[in-house]
Amino acid sequence: MTNAMHEPVTFPVTREHPLDPPQDFTRWREDAPLRPMLFADGHVGWLATGYAASRAVLADPRFSNDVQVTHPPIPQRIRQQTLAKFPGFFLREDPPEHTRFRRLLTGQFTVRRMRLLEPRIEKITSDRLDAMEREGSPVDLVQSFALPIPSLVICELLGVPYSDHDRFQRDSSALLNLDNSIERAREAMESLLDYVRGLVARKREEPGDDLISGLIATGKLTDVEITGASVLMLVAGHETTANMLALGTYTLLRNPAQLAALRADPSLAEPAVEELLRYLTIVHLGPVRTATEDVEIEGRTIRAGQSVTVSLSAANRDPGRFGDPDSLDITRQATGHLAFGHGIHQCLGQQLARIEMRIGYPALLGRFPGLRLATPGEEVAMRSNMAIYGVHRLPVAW
Amino acid sequence: MRIKADTEVCIGAGMCVFTAGDVFDQDEDEGTVVVLLPEPPPDRHAAVRRAVQVCPSGALSISENA
């Protein structure tokens, strides 16, 4: 190995261009797709920037995702981690605990079940577009379109009254804001847990036709576990798709040729969604895994106890996997990207997210043929300080 | 080509159904993989290889000489 064992790098967060990952990744990936990295707490572990290395780490059962053994890549993540350990938060657990939860939920998120939701998602989407028309140009696309759609859908699916959305949207956002104090984040988490705990108790008395009632009916989880898992799904179902809808629209508006192609041929919606997922990779600050024994990957030995930060953004721009990776091309075959992760923790809601976007982008572009940014593109503030990347507001006119 | 699926390993992500919905399905209750065409016709081989490649849990494999 030539020059690859240099001093450990730190995880870069500054982007030279809002839609591209930090440039350091490109250089490091060419040099060593897996390289030493200094974590925020002083731990010396690894950074994976290559597609193959990232997949290998995420798929390998010798890596743990237990929040108690992983180190934070950037300082703010310390706060996130102290919050992520409570019963039912199966994302940050290993088998067999993780398997127990995932097994109870996967049947609820199958491709077929998600397709059954299509008419309902179409109705929710067109209702939002009607509301935008009534409101009149210009509007903030985040508040009027991108956030309400996934919020309404996940609320219906879980059986959470949408009338309470102000409360948990605020809490969810506080939780994902890396600039918030640990106290504020903890408060938001307590508030979310309190809210859902009450809901679970009510559903135990009066079950409905929804996922939380369904979990209660299995008899296999305690109320505390159902509460934790439901908070996880509520938060995960909120800001993720919302940011893809808003940031994806921003990206299309800044790439007029791609926008025109999608407008002209709505059958491109499916590959366009995959390409936007790859190109934007909104989970931009992790994930992290820790080796439970010595593991050799790409000729490097990761020692037991060492953490690896996987840069999904860098992996999805690996020229070894995607030709001309820094170009947005909605006609390419981008399936196989790592935007939803890889391995046993790959996003549970990914098929739902795909349908919301596949319906959302063409419906928006179809309803407003003259859709355009209402402020200069460079002035749109990016969510660099959030666990999920995107735009804070997106003023659009038509 | 013959497809093998390990439902113990499967995590129900649905990527096989998303990639080749005529070859794969998911169990109603657990969401785990159901192989509809264990010996898919040649014109589906490329899609099946893609499905195997994108499976996040490594639950799918193929043997070519069946």
TrEMBL record, chain A:
Molecular functions per Gene Ontology: heme binding; iron ion binding; monooxygenase activity; oxidoreductase activity, acting on paired donors, with incorporation or reduction of molecular oxygen
Keywords in alphabetical order: Heme, Iron, Metal-binding, Monooxygenase, Oxidoreductase
Entry's transmembrane regions: none
Heme keyword on record: yes
Iron listed as a keyword: yes
Coiled coil: none
PROSITE patterns referenced in this protein's UniProt entry, alphabetically: CYTOCHROME_P450
Annotated segments matching region Disordered: 1-22
Alphabetized Pfam families for the sequence: p450
Protein name: Cytochrome P450
InterPro entries linked: Cyt_P450, Cyt_P450_B, Cyt_P450_CS, Cyt_P450_sf
UniProt similarity note: Belongs to the cytochrome P450 family.
UniProtKB/TrEMBL annotation, chain B:
GO MF entry, a single one: iron ion binding
Residues of the Divergent 4Fe-4S mono-cluster domain: 1-64
InterPro entries in UniProt: 3Fe4S_ferredoxin, Divergent_4Fe-4S_mono-cluster, Fe-S_cluster_ET
Keyword Iron listed: yes
Coiled-coil parts of chain: none
Cofactors named for this entry: [3Fe-4S] cluster
Keyword Transport attributed: yes
Keywords: 3Fe-4S, Electron transport, Iron, Iron-sulfur, Metal-binding, Transport
Function: Ferredoxins are iron-sulfur proteins that transfer electrons in a wide variety of metabolic reactions.
Protein name: Ferredoxin
Origin species: Sphaerisporangium krabiense
